[in-house]
Every structure is written in C-alpha cells, then in structure tokens.
Amino acid sequence: MNKADYSKLFPDNRHEGETVLRQAQLVLLRMFRIIDHICREHDIKYWMCSGTLLGAVRYKGFIPWDDDLDICMLREDYEKFIAFAVNEFPADMILQTRETDPTYRYLPLPCKVRDKKSFVLSPGFEDDNSEKGLFIDIFPADRYHTGRWNFFFERTIKTYNKFICKCLEAANYKHLSSKKRILASFHPVFKFLLQRYLERSRKLIDRNRNLGNDCYIGHGFDTLWKRFFRYDDMMPLIELEFEGSLFFAPHSPDVYLTTLYGKNYMTPPREADRQAAQHAYTIKPILEDVV
Predict the structure, then answer these.
(1) CATH number among 3.40.630, 1.10.1760, 3.30.460, 2.40.128, domain 6-142+219-284
(2) pLDDT tens digits, residue range 159-217?
(3) CB 260 within 8 A of CB 227
C-alpha cells in the first residue's frame, strides 16, 4: 500500500488560527484526522476520552480553553496502531514511546503522537531532552475481571504502580521540597521496581485478553488512572462530531462522562478554573525556523 499524501488529504492549516491556543488546536486536529485515517484503513478501534469526549458532547469540538487531545485504544488495537503508525506517519509527526524515543520519561503514559513543527513545555520537564512538539495522548486500555477479588487485586497493583511512578516523578520537582529531594535520591531503586512491575503486568495484560466481552474496560496496567467501565457501556463504538468531522466515541458517552465529571458535566466550570485545566505553560504552535 502506498503511503498516503497527508499534505493533500489533511493540509497543515495552523496559520489560520487567530490565537496561539487556536493554532495549537488546529495542529492537534490535523494529527487526529491522520490518526483516524490510519485507524480506519487498518480496522483499528479507538475512542475519544477524557476532555476530548467532553468537548465533543458539550461543544462538538475542543473545549474552548483546552490545549490537548486524548484518545484510547484496547490493547490489541493499541499494539496494532503502534506497528502501523511508525511507518505511515508523515515526516512532521512522530510516534513517541519508550522504544522510539529513549529519552521519553513521562511514566504515567506509554505513548504520545507529536507534531515536529511546534513546541510545548510542561512544568517539571524543562531539562528533558525528548521531543517536545504538541501532542496527542494515546491511552492503552486493558480488560479487567468483574469478579470481586480478582478486580480488587487488579486495582491494588495499579495503586502500587501509581505509587512507584509518583516517587520517580519526584526527581522532576526536587527543587520544590525536601520530601521530593529525599524521594529523588532513591530514583535508581524506584526505577528498578518500575521495570519489574512492567514485566509482571505484561502477564496480566496477556492473561486478561481472554476475558472477551465479559469484563470491565479500564486504562492499561501500565498507566496510572483507575477508571473502569462495563464492556457494554464502551462497545460497540459510536461516532460523534468533533470540529466538523466524525470520530469514534464510547457506546454510552453519558455513562463515561458522568463517571469522570459527575452528572452536571454539561455545565462549564467557572472562568477562574479554566486556566488551571491547561497542560502547559509554554506553547508555540508555529516555529518560524521550521518550514
């Protein structure tokens, strides 16, 4: 199959944005359309999640003050996407994982898709040498048991993973407190524990593939978030409008959004709380020295 000409299918229109935030959103939207195109070409399932899904339901697009975009994939689709995306992305996009970018160290999330013609900087990553273009977060999702004790065990080991990752992240913020400096001094120990956890969690990931539809769906064992949904609330996927195009979403967006944001999720937050929702303090959607 010939590589798609994305410059014609999805032209880069970031210069059309009237503000820096809107320019950033246009960069993310173009990347999202390319990801969607690849997924549809290869029968890969994904769905909008978190604030992206909230924006689709509330605004049929981005939350007006939001500067990121999140999608989720079942583990088998996530692995398939990783395999295809490496070879099919245009030259100005990069798949960022621990394997493709050895300097990538954002522990809670194993995969991002980045634009190479922009720059974004989040607190704690000033000295990081990894790619820093605008990004879309790709969350792997795993199957979890519905039985009480198995589910309790699976939630517990995710809590353990969260503890390790938070301790490791202290190295990014050791200048803020003595507690973080102390935790940072044990960085090699926590790094070893994380590697052991990832090795062992792989067995759970592979074992739970066999659960089929009799399961909960939740963020992957290699992520921090503990959000779980009945399989029937997630599948089969539906399509929702987002910025003038159709993208995939959970079968029951109301259940998903109520779980994350409460029953009043259609009510926007106070003006003072909107800036706090942004994920970066430096955003440059257009780098003048990049053609």
Answers:
(1) 3.30.460
(2) 999 999 888 888 777 777 888 888 889 889 988 998 899 999 999 999 999 998 999 99
(3) yes
